[in-house]
Write a structure and sequence with these properties.
Layout (H helix, E strand, L loop, with lengths): L4 E5 L4 H13 L3 E4 L9 H4 L21 E5 L3 H13 L7 E4 L9 H15 L4
Length: 127
């Protein structure tokens, strides 16, 4: 069975991050904090999936500030519990979140961020 993993981006609130990390550790979910220089790496590489190589292009300042998380190998039950944890603890939800898919595994963090921003904007702009 492959290990449940999560990538976290831009979690600047230390207390919030501590609570999230505590939950993930308790549930044996591996956490990686992704830093801006890694934003051009494929999600496959960030999750250390065999067969993905490092991007030779250096990230020269492409960035985003929003919190984002990418989940790998979460069952629907694990996902529901994790999302419920935010509500139960009075934590604001993370607006930009995605499950790793056979398509997104090849994307870099910037592409995923752009797609999630588009979706988020569309979902919240229906008037």
């Amino acid at each position: 069975m492959s290990q449940t993993q999560i990538l976290l981006y831009n979690f600047k609130d230390e207390d919030r991050l501590r609570q999230i990390r505590r939950y993930l550790n308790r549930h044996r979910i591996s956490v990686r904090m992704v830093q801006q220089p890694e934003y051009l790496e494929s999600l496959g590489l960030l999750f250390e999936i065999p067969g993905f190589s490092k991007n030779p292009v250096f990230n020269l300042g492409k960035n985003f500030q929003e919190e984002m998380m990418v989940l790998k190998d979460f069952s629907s039950e694990q996902l529901d519990e994790f999302l419920a944890f935010f509500k139960e603890n009075g934590l604001l939800p993370v607006n930009l979140k995605a499950m790793l898919t056979p398509v997104t595994v090849h994307w870099d963090s910037l592409k995923l961020h752009d797609e999630l921003m588009k979706e988020h904007t569309e979902m919240h702009s229906h008037k």
